[in-house]
Structures are given as structure tokens and as C-alpha cells.
From TrEMBL, chain A:
Organism domain of life: Bacteria
One Gene Ontology term of the molecular function aspect: transmembrane transporter activity
Compartments it resides in: Cell inner membrane; Cell membrane
SUPFAM superfamilies from the UniProt entry: MetI-like
Membrane keyword on record: yes
Protein name: ABC transporter permease
Sections of the chain in a coiled coil: none
Alphabetical list of Gene3D superfamilies matching this protein: MetI-like
TM helices/strands, residue ranges: 20-44, 73-98, 191-213
TrEMBL record, chain B:
A GO term, aspect molecular function: ATP binding
PROSITE patterns per the UniProt record, alphabetical: ABC_TRANSPORTER_1, ABC_TRANSPORTER_2
Predominant location: membrane
Name of this protein: ATP-binding protein
Membrane topology: Peripheral membrane protein
Domain ABC transporter: 7-250
Species of origin: Methylobacterium indicum
InterPro entries in alphabetical order: AAA+_ATPase, ABC_ATPase_HisP-typ, ABC_transporter-like_ATP-bd, ABC_transporter-like_CS, MetN_ABC_transporter-like, P-loop_NTPase
UniProt-annotated location(s): Cell membrane
Record-stated family: Belongs to the ABC transporter superfamily.
Keywords: ATP-binding, Cell membrane, Membrane, Nucleotide-binding, Transport
Amino acid sequence: MTYAWDFMPVLRHLDMLALGLVNTVKIAAASIVLGVAIGLVLALMRLSPSRLARAPATAFIEFYRNTPPIVHFFWFFYALPVLADISLDPLAAAILALSTQSGAFYAEVFRGGIVSIEKGQWEGARALGMSRAQLMRRVVLPQAIGRMVPPFVERSFELTKTTALASTLAYGELLYQAMQVNSQTFRPLEVYTVVALLYLVLLITASALARLAEQRLTAYR
Amino acid sequence: MTTTPLLEVEGLHKAFGPHEVLRGIDLAVMPGERVAIIGGSGSGKSTLLRCLNFMEVPTAGRIALDGRTLGRRGRDGGTVYPESELCGVRRRVGMVFQQFNLFPHRTAIENVMEALVTVKGTPRAEARARAEAELGKVGLSEKRDAYPSRLSGGQQQRVAIARALAMDPEILLFDEPTSSLDPELVGEVLRVIRGLAGEGRTMLLVTHELGFAYHFATKVVFLADGRFYEVGTPDEVLKHPRGERTRSFLARHSEFAF
């Protein structure tokens, strides 16, 4: 069996795919920024000595860990307008779904990095009279951040790939645009090959940048 | 002549869950006194030291610094120690740890400067000058820009001592400062500590180096089962011990001496 590959029809629609790529980056970037903010709050709540702060954060995290992301997408898009009379456009719904979900995962990344810092570091700082805030800012976080980078990058890659689910809300990210190109060219093999390459290039570039950041953060080792 | 003890401990108890480590410790340390705390493993000597700067919060008992009792009465009758008060106490009571606990992401001089700047609010230039002086005192001026991972254990412990000294503590606590060092590095650290004794500093030292304790201390306490079993001058406790357990402890320590 020989299949005659022909990329020309697809390449003629490269502008559509490029727009999709931009939209994918847009959802991913917004969700990472929002997710980090949510994750920080959740991590601090989980590290708090107060049970009242820990319990809701744990519940939130467990909820997102144990439900599939596509359900979150549908829930924000279809349930919120009915329940709260808040109508979200597909982009907003996608960002909300992704940032709350990844916030739950980022929280564990941040918490894991912080608790991985040896007891002696906390004691060394406390013995010098540092307050909890000072020892966090000056001693624990600077060391923890280096350890957070690899799992943080891993999570962000997962998030970027999950943006493809926004296509189910008819938002014009890369996968949705690919489906459009496909329906005009009837070249699914070529279309999805190109799309896979675009994701690949995007994530490989991002991982090179992440490695650079990690090297700079852990240069003291 | 009567003066107030710089540090006073009364009826100190510490339990970890059901396990009682300290069972009523009374201790008064006068300014300039040097106390060596010895005892077998699990006797509670490290826990006692760690209660004095509140690395561990005592279960019961009273600790007074310079005549002022620390903490305040809680609703249930126990003592509550507000974190802000403890930060203040720790600025006055420095500690050197068995594992050094230097900050690995900071150079030697930055380790010494850190709390000066962060805790005391000393201007950076002034803190740097002070840190250089302290590093000079422990003989590590040329290592000022080295990260801890590039220093030997003995050098790391000397930086840790400089870091504690830079805060001008009224009392210095040493928690087995040479126990994790290779034998050939022990001497350089003990020499630094002996130098501090010559300055008339108030110090408490938990150690297994009995020979050093003998020359260093003005007072030796032998701890067993969370209580002071024998207290006296180095001569009394280490050379002429009266208690049976002190004797057998010392005998075990000199078993392989020649």
C-alpha cells in the first residue's frame, strides 16, 4: 500500500494553523499565570498550621486530581450560565477550567518543593532569629524553586497539551483549526502530521528555555 | 557577690508524645560560665540544649533570660511562647549545629551576613565588614566567596560559628559541633571554640569530646535519663566522679584510650 503524501493543500492553509498555534499559546500562557497564582494560594493554605485553611485546599486539590479535565471544560461552559447566570465565551471557559485544574497540581508542586528542604535549613534560619516569613523568603524558597522547576515544567507541558480540549467548545486553537483545514482539504494525514510537528516545536522550544532557567537557579550546587 | 544568672532553667520537662526525654532540669548559668553537657545517647542532652533557644518548645518548666521569665501563662495553665518573643530570644542565644546547617545557596560571607541584614537590619556594607571580621577570626578570610559545597566539614563548621558570632549573641549553644567531622578536622573547630572561651563568652556545649570538655568548661553536667545525675567542676565530674553511672560512662569512653 502506498499513500501519496501531498502537503501542498495543507500548507496553503498554514495561516489558519498559525492562528491556531497563537491561540493555543494564548490559552496556555494565561492558564499558567492564573494557575500559578491559584497554586500559590492553595499551597500556602495546605502548609498552614490551621486545619480550617488546610481542609478546603485539600478538598479542592483532590477534586481536580480525581476528575477528567474535559468535564471541567464542559462544566464551566455549560453549567455556569445555568447556575450562576454567568455566560462565558469559549476562551474564558477554557482558561478557567485549565487554570483551576493546573492550580491544584501546581499547589502540590510548590508544596512538595518547600517540604523537601531539609529540616536543618529551617532550624539554621530560625536559630538566627528569622521569622517564618523571613526564612521562607530568604532560605527555603530560593532553594525550593530550583527543585520545583522540573515538575513545574512537566505540569505546564501537560497543561499546554490539554488546551486541545478547548476545541470541544469550538474555540479556534490549534486542534480546532486543524479540523477546519481538514474539512476544506480532506487531507487528515497531512493536517494532523503538521499539527503534531507544531506542538512538538512549541514544547521543545519551551523545554530548552526551562532547562536554561533551571541551570541558573541551581548554579550553587 | 550575687548577680542574676544570665540563663535560668527551673523544672524543665520535655516529652515527645508519650516519651519523656527531659524529666525536670534545674540549671543556672552565670555570665561568662562555660557549661559542658555530657551523657550517653538518648540521655536528653541535645534536647536540653535545643529547648534553650526553643528549637523545641518545653512541655513544662520555666526558662528565664537575664532575670526575665520567657513566655506567658496560657488559658489552660501552661506557658505560651509567642513566635515574636522566640525570635527575639534566638537573636540573643546563638546556636551551632552538629550538621552546620549553612545555607547552600549563599557563599561563606553571605551566610554570615544573612541574618545581620535580614533580622537585624544592618546596612549591607556594614554587615559585609562585620562578616569579613568574623570570617577572619575563624581563619577563613580567603574562603569568603566559596559556596558551602566547596568547603570541608571543618571549614563549614567554622563558617557556622562565624555566622552565629556575627549576631553578638549573649549565649552560644554548641550541639555536638564536631560529631559529624572527620577526626583530622575536629581540631580546627575545637581550637576556634577554645579561642571563644578566652573571650569570656557564656557558652553551653554538648559534646562527646571529654578531653576538650575538661579543658573548656567551668562546669560539667552529666545527664542520665533526662535528669542531672552529677554536676560539678571538670575535675569533680570527669576526674573524680562520685556516681556509679558517671563512672561507668567515663570508663566506656576511655575503654580504648592508651
